[in-house]
Amino acid sequence: MSKVNTQMIDEERAKFLRYLTKAGRRVSHGREIVFDQVMRAHGHFTAEELARGCLEKKLKVSRPTVYRVLYDLLEAGVIRETAFGDKHRHFEHVYDEKPHHHAQCIRCHRFIEFPDRKEDEVYHPYLEKQGFKILGHEMHFYGVCRKCQDKEGL
Amino acid sequence: MSKVNTQMIDEERAKFLRYLTKAGRRVSHGREIVFDQVMRAHGHFTAEELARGCLEKKLKVSRPTVYRVLYDLLEAGVIRETAFGDKHRHFEHVYDEKPHHHAQCIRCHRFIEFPDRKEDEVYHPYLEKQGFKILGHEMHFYGVCRKCQDKEGL
DNA sequence: GTATGTGCAAATCATTTGCATTCTC
DNA sequence: GAGAATGCAAATGATTTGCACATAC
């Protein structure tokens, strides 16, 4: 919608195309459709949700293709997997990434989302104010390890 | 092994029994076996791993029972789900819980584990020293939300 | 034209469920 | 003895794969 948004999508698209070219893969119809749908998605989504959405909209892609392209996008660094202990895989764009956090209830599995701050202690009062009883936490960084960076250097 | 360890296991067992009693559930053979195996497990494990282990050791439990008891233990707060974006469910004890962190490679999905510090910035140099290129992070708190606390109060 | 991408149907794999049987309280 | 727990086999649901056909380069 906004100029920034459009620009970011273009950058992501360029990143994807660059990746495909470099990897000797093709710019196919399926890849375009799925890329598009991913960019339209808000927040995090599961592979199934995206696939279902495509099918419901009668887009010309099959479920397996959605899954396949999702892994392309992962490889390309356009999306990333989020760290939820759920049965399904969750993804989200890389492009709207700001450090963002979640508190999950071990009973109902619902998430409370909260804004970024500098130090982890800062979050406790915030969550407690919402009545969330904290049992522990885990910081989850994602990135590329040395070995994989070396491999990519090839 | 150590005295502390044994004591903690006893405490966890007591917690589990208390939960079962309170919930009007029974102290069955299956629950004892699975509790035992969980306490022997190191770090995090998947339901499948635990089930397979039980079957390989010819323990008197079936796969569905392992799964069922695992959810009892979750309910009882003896184990918790960890926040990994994997197809399987990961669990770990609550009892050896210290704030601990993981950095995961988006390529090979391997984890780098690292010790707890006070502020999240502190981790960056640590990971970078290991050649891990950080793309982002996510703080994951687990606990019980207000609604579920209220429900438990019943 | 050739190698890659795709859909379809079928295979997998972890997890869950129905139900008859066995056990705990 | 009644209500729970369990095993078994079968169901489920997400994800993946084999393969013949279609398409991008």
Task: Identify the notable features of this structure and list them briefly.
homodimer; 154 residues; alpha+beta; Arc Repressor Mutant, subunit A; Dna Ligase, domain 1; 2 domains; three-stranded antiparallel sheet; two-stranded antiparallel ribbon; 6 helices; 6 strands; DNA-binding
What this model shows, in words?
The structure is a homodimer of 154-residue chains. Chain A is an alpha+beta fold and 154 residues long. The first copy, chain A, folds into two domains: 91 residues, Arc Repressor Mutant, subunit A; 53 residues, Ferric-uptake regulator, C-terminal dimerisarion domain (Dna Ligase, domain 1). Helix content of chain A is 46%, strand content 19%. Chain A has six helices and six strands. In chain A, the strands form two sheets. In chain A, strands 1-3-2 form a three-stranded antiparallel sheet. In chain A, strands 4-5 form a two-stranded antiparallel sheet. In chain A, strand 4 and strand 5 form a beta hairpin. In chain A, helix 1 crosses helix 4, helix 2 crosses helix 4 and helix 3 packs across helix 4. Chain A starts with a helix and ends with a helix. The mean pLDDT of chain A is 77. Chains A and B meet through strand 4, strand 6 and helix 6 of A and strand 4, strand 6 and helix 6 of B. The first copy, chain A, binds a DNA duplex (25 and 25 nucleotides) through helix 2, helix 3 and helix 4.
